[in-house]
Amino acid sequence: MYGIAALQPYVIGLFLLWAGLVKLLGRRMRAQAGRTALARLVGPARAVTALRLAGVLELAVAAALLLPPALPVEGVAATGLSMGFLAYLTYARRAAPASSCGCLGAHSRPVSTRGFARAGVLLAASVAAIWAGPHPPAPALALAGLAEIAVLLGLSPELDRHWLMPLRRLLVRLRRPLAVTPEQAREIPLEVSLRLLYLSSAYCSTSARLRSDVQEAWDEDGVRFVVYAAHGGTAVFAVPLAGGDPSAVRVALIDEPALT
Amino acid sequence: MTSRRQLLKSAVLGGGAGVVAATALGSLGPEAAFGAAPPQVAPGTPDPGFAEGRIRSIKDNTLLVLGSNWVFHTIRVVDGTSLWKLGPVAFDHVKPGDGLYARGVRMPDGVLAAESVWLNIVNVKGHIKNITDDRLHLDHDDKEILCHRVAGTSVAVYSDAPPSADLSRLRVGQHVQVLGAWRPDTNEVDIATVFSPH
Fold first, then answer.
1. Got the DSSP string for B139-177?
2. Where does the sequence pass through the membrane (chain A) (predicted)?
């Protein structure tokens, strides 16, 4: 238990160090400061200054947590900061639901449940850090620390493009969830024929006469027949199922009496 | 039905009927449901030949539709009406609760005699968040829309290739536009066409 508490200043310290550096040094972050909820809170003109001040505050708390000696007041400071994060996220969700929080990097997504969960984990870790004291290092503790950092990173939507998106792309490449079976590949959806139809001069010359969308379609002898209602009758198109030559599309306009 | 089809087939392949010239009107493909109003409608006035809303009840061939502006429409479906629900469908596919766009001719009694009805049609843009079994998880204005591939129906239109049923070129993270049929009261859509910029 004391080991876990002793671990927290390092976990929170590293996280705040990163957040502070991103705010102070990130060019994109400064460029997008006007689009964060902070701009709504303090005004767009003061958004960059407020962002830098928040970064300085985070760095100060990070330095206090990471440098010895471990004092309860450092945990109290981190707790106050985490509560501030939660309050800010609540404000952002209510006052500027379309704005990003500007917490850990430039991105345009609004505050999400993950953001609240991350602030909640930080708050819990900060409270635990109040009781942090000297503790001998142990491999199990290091693993717990890494797991905690992984959880915090996993709850950071700002970082999704660095790990979540590549991971999903890899899984899609391996699993091929949209791969078509040979049977499916032989089947030609109606929309494929319609796309060819729209490109054809037969359709362009007749479209003004059409009154409806597709009424009926069927395949026969390698040709797909597509029927529309037309002014005064029916338009029937013959679209070849094989090949992609729009000039092969044919059309006939038939008077209504001829069909009855 | 067969004899009618044979007649239509012989007309188009046998040269039994002529091709007519184009006039000022436009096409009525699914895209037309989102198209501009016909030019004869004065700006700011409702188009009498158009109705949208959700079906409250169906009686015989008549749909009672509540529009999104709380105006009721009575829409009559006749033999020549085209019905689209992920593709051309028969009248028995029309269900209460379906959303629709309809074009037709407004009769003197206020009933819209429909020429085309598009059921549950949606046109959404977004980023692909993830791809799982036959599904695109679309991030649309930070809300997730599940887009289902329907075998034999769903088509991908790429910028550098002909349209095809092969959606496997779609990538996580890319932007797409999906034309499809909404599953009423869910965040799910069956894909008719997915447009990819690459």
1. EETTEEEEEE--TTT-EEE-TTS--BS--TT--TT-EEE
2. 6-26, 47-67, 73-91
* B52 and B130 together in one domain: no
In this structure, are B100 and B64 located in the same domain?
Answer: yes
pLDDT tens sequence across B123-171: 999 999 999 999 999 999 888 999 999 999 999 999 888 898 999 999 9
Q: What is the model's pLDDT at position A66? A: 86
Considering the domain architecture, whether residues A8 and A117 belong to the same structural domain is answered as yes
Say whether both A116 and A153 belong to one domain. yes
Rounded to 5, what percent of chain A is helix, strand, coil? 65, 15, 20
* Any A CB within 8 A of B148 CB: no
Answer yes or no: do A109 and A188 share one domain: no
Contact B128/B137 with Cβ under 8 angstroms?
Answer: yes
What is the spatial distance between Cα A17 and Cα A33, in angstroms, rounded to a whole number? 19
Question: Does a structural domain hold residue A249?
Answer: yes
pTM of the model: 0.79
Whether A201 shows a pLDDT value over 80: the answer reads yes
Q: Which domain holds residue A34?
A: 2-174
pLDDT at B28 over 70: no
* B36: pLDDT strictly greater than 50: no
Task: Decide if A260 is inside a domain.
Answer: no
Q: Which of residues 39-58 of B touch A (CB under 8 A)?
A: none
Of B116, B134, B192, the CB nearest to A177: B134
Which of A163, A212, A251 best tests the B interface by mutation, with the highest count of B CBs <10 A? A212
Chain A residues with CB under 8 Å of B82 CB are: 212-215, 228-229
Q: Residue range A66-84: average pLDDT?
A: 85
